Amino acid sequence: MNQFFAFQNTPELQKVALASYHLEGEANQWLQWVHRLHEEEGRVLSWTNFEDELWACFGHSECEDFDEALSRIRQGGSLRDYQREIERLGNRVRGWMQRALVGTFMGGLKTEISDGIRMFKPQTLKEAISLARMKDDQLSRQRRFSKPAPSPPMRSTISPPSFN
Question: The pTM is what?
Fold first, then answer.
């Protein structure tokens, strides 16, 4: 939705109205209730509040704390999977400075990757991801070319029978 609004240069005050136009059934009833609560409190439902309320009502049921999850993230599998998870969680948090995002990303990387890029002191998450991908590619190439050559087949030495 935010991509659409950015592309259309939608004014902040029109975002909730445009999004609510597409709500039906339970979601529409929910929005009417949220609007009423905001009106009774003398507040306007901003786009940020709308998103927060929407996630609170219809988001993940396991009550995931995205700030906590992002602060504890560790690379367990591929770099690409780690990057996707960082981006997923990063999309759900607010108020994180670039420096904190870079530190979290670097701190969760596998040591073989983070040790190879820490000296470059990336300033943005984009820069850190780019450096990590280059290091990961380098490590993959090294693993490919440093595989031990297959051993030649074993020849059995057969001794001629002795005739004593």
Answer: 0.56
Do 141 and 70 have their domain in common? yes
5-54 per-position pLDDT tens digit: 888 898 888 888 888 888 888 888 988 888 888 888 888 888 888 888 88
Helix (H, G, I), strand (E, B) or coil at 62: coil
Is there a single domain that holds both residue 118 and residue 136?
Answer: yes
> What angle, 0 to 180 degrees and rounded to 10, lies between the N-to-C axes of helices 125-145 and 79-90?
170
Tokens 């400075």, residue located: 97
* 137 and 72 both lie in a single domain: yes
Q: What is the mean pLDDT of the chain?
A: 86
Helices (H) and strands (E) in the chain, counts: 9, 0
Angle of CA points 87, 92, 98, to nearest 5°: 60
Residue 163 lies in a domain: no
